[in-house]
UniProtKB/TrEMBL annotation:
UniProt signal peptide: none
Domain DDE Tnp4: 102-159
Required co-factors: a divalent metal cation
Keyword Nuclease: yes
Primary localization: nucleus
Name of this chain's protein: Transposase
Cellular component aspect of the GO annotation: nucleus
Domain of life, per lineage: Eukaryota
Native source organism of the sequence: Zingiber officinale (Ginger)
Amino acid sequence: MNRSSFTKLCCMLKSEGGLKGTRYMEVDEQVAISLHLLAHHVKNRTIQFRFKRSGETISRHFSLFLNVVIHLQNVLFENPEPITAGSIDWRWKWFKNCLGALDGTHIKVRVPTEDRPRYRTRKGEIATNVLAACSQNMQFTYVLSGWEGSAADSRVLRDAITRENGLKVSHGLLINFSKYPKYFTVF
């Protein structure tokens, strides 16, 4: 994330989300700590050392940050628009009324030794299985992470569909990708 994006995010969280600085920690530091925790999946103790703050302070500000992000979900997340019949983008013109593309990927992770067998993929890497959907503008509209690497894609998809606030798939918009093998590789 560049400085301009970081500044815009901080301003949005302040003005629209109500995130406030405290006597000892400004909003930009709260956001930096929270983004570092999310991006690097490190322990509280690591953040304590890096930012010279107590564990309780980090935990409290991270919770405030998450509450503001959840409060702003309608602002931060966009609803996808279906692909029109007159689409001129060669990658999408065959998929009339589709909302986007759905795919799974494996992301390498570090896990405790006792959990490694569950996270080992069929290629022998330690990874987590992530399901993501994106709109035609290449913006993520849904992400489900946390499944162990050994989990089958169909199991992850079934979990995403059956969650209370999970992935919603309209039965009228399903596509048989076997009809379009040449175009499926674009995604």
